[in-house]
Amino acid sequence: MKVGIVGYGGYIPRYRLKVEEIAKVWGVNPRQIKRGLGVEEKSVPGPDEDTVTISVEAARNALRRAGIDPRSIGAVYVGSESHPYTVKPTATIVSEAIGATPELTAADFEFACKAGTAGIQACMGMVESGMIKYGLAVGADTAQSSPGDALEYAAAAGGAAVIVGKAEDDALAIIEGTYSYTTDTPDFWRREMKPYPKHGGRFTGKPGYFKHTLSAAYGLLRQLKLTPKDFDHAVFHQPNGKFPVEAAKELGFSMDQIRAGLLAPKIGNTYSGSSLLGLASVLDQSKEGDRILLVSYGSGAGSDAFSLIVTESIESKRDLSPKISDFIEDKVYIDYATYCKLTRKLVRK
Amino acid sequence: MHVPRFWREIPNRYNLIGTKCNHCNKVFFPPRAICPNCRRVGNLEPCKLEGKGKVLSFTVVHVAPQDFKDQVPYVLAIIELKEGPKLMAQVTDCDPDEVEIGAEVEITFRRIKEDSEEGIIHYGPKAKLLRSKPSEQT
Ligand SMILES: [Zn+2]
Hints:
The complex is a heterodimer of chains A (about 350) and B (about 140).
Chain A: E1 3-11, E2 15-18, H1 19-26, H2 30-37, E3 41-44, H3 51-66, E4 73-79, H4 90-97, E5 105-109, H5 115-128, E6 134-142, E7 157-166, E8 173-185, E9 188-189, E10 198-199, H6 205-224, E11 233-236, H7 243-251, H8 255-258, H9 264-267, H10 274-285, E12 291-295, E13 300-310, H11 313-317, H12 324-329, E14 331-333, H13 336-342
Parallel strand pairs in A: 2-14, 4-5, 4-6, 11-12
Antiparallel strand pairs in A: 1-7, 1-8, 2-3, 6-7, 8-13, 9-10, 12-13
Chain B: H1 3-8, H2 10-15, E1 17-21, E2 27-28, E3 44-48, E4 52-61, E5 74-81, E6 86-92, E7 104-114, E8 121-129, E9 136-137
Bound molecules: zinc ion.
C-alpha cells in the first residue's frame, strides 16, 4: 500500500520586520546582513497569535483541501519548539478546533526545526499499517531570539500542515520514499525555563545543517536510485536564505529547482514551519507528475528526506485554500519597538 | 473566568457550534436549549456555522480592561453571521481605520486572553477583514 498527502495548508502572520529595522538598533550595516544571510524581512506573530493559532489556521486550510470528515483523522501531531504550554499539549487544542476529537490519538513533537516532518513519518507508518485512516502533521513556530543575537534577523513565525492518507484516497502527492539521518550534535539548544536559545555560532553550519541535510538527501537518492535531474523541485530547511541555496548547489540542484520553495528571503526562518511551508509553496505551483525532494533539518541534530510525486488531484484541490504567495503578499510592516512589544520583549510594568 | 466554564464553552468558542430550530429554521449562537419562537413545538439541533458575515456595528476601544490594555486601539464589532445570529467579536489584524459598517469578515481562531502568566490561555473567535486584494501597508 502506498501513502500520500491528501491535503496541505499553510499560514503566515501579516506582520513583517525588515532587516534594516533590526540593524539600525544594533548599529550594523543592513546590506551586509542581507547579503550574508539572504534574508530581507521576517514574519512576526500578532498579539493574539501563537503556535496553537497558527497550527489551527494551517490545519483548517489543509482540511479544506483534503475534503474529508475531520472525525476520520486518527492522529494529530504538532511539531514545534514554541508550544504555548510546557505541560498541556498543543495537539489537543488543534484537534478540538478542527473537529477531530474525541476518537483519535494526539501528541506534541519536539525536534528543533524538524518536528513537523517527524510527525509526517509517524503518520505514514500508522496509515500504512492500517492503524488510522488519516493523520495530521503540523510544523509551526513563533521563534524567539535573544535581542541583538544574529538569530534575530531571521527568527520568524508561521506554520504548515499536511494530512497523510492512503494514495488511493485521493492523494494529491504520493510519498515514494523517506530517509532520515540523525546524530547527537550540540549546534543549537535551549534549556528549560530559558526564553532564548543558544547556539554554537559558526559551528551550526558545517557539522549541523550541511552534514545532516546532505546526508539525508544523498541517502534518499541512493535508496530510490534517483539523481537531482529526476526532480522538478527541491525544498530544504531554511534557517536563512543562503544555507538552502548552498546545500542545493552542493547536491547538484539548480536555482530553478529550488525557487518555488525558497521563502526565507521574504519571511525568515519559521523553524518547524520552514521546510513544510516551502513544500506547500511548491505544491501551490506544481503539476501532475512533478517529483519533489523535501529535506528538513532540526538542530541537535537530524534531517528527514522525502520524495513526492504530484498527482492529478492537485488541480482540483489547490484552489480550495489560500496559497502561500497570498500570505507572503498580504503584509504590514512594523518597527522594532512594536516588534519588541508583540514578542513580549517589552512588557508594561 | 473559571476554568470549568471556559472548558464547557470550548465547542462553541472554537468551532462556532450553534443550534438550529427544526421547526422555524432559526439559528442561534451562542447555542440555546429552547427556541424562543416555537417553544415546545420546535427541537433544537447543533449547527456548525460557516464563520462568514459582515460588520453590523463597531466601536474603537481606546480605554480597555486590564487584559486588553496592550492592544489599544482595537475594534470591537457586532458581526452578523450569514446564518443569521449576531456575535460580538474583536476585529483582529487591522488598523481601526480599515473597518466600516458592512465590511465582510471571516471568523478566525485567536488567543482571546490568558488567566495571568501561569493560568490557562483562552482561545476563541475573532473577526478578520476579507480583503479583496492583498494590501501592503507601510
Ligand atoms: Zn423555532
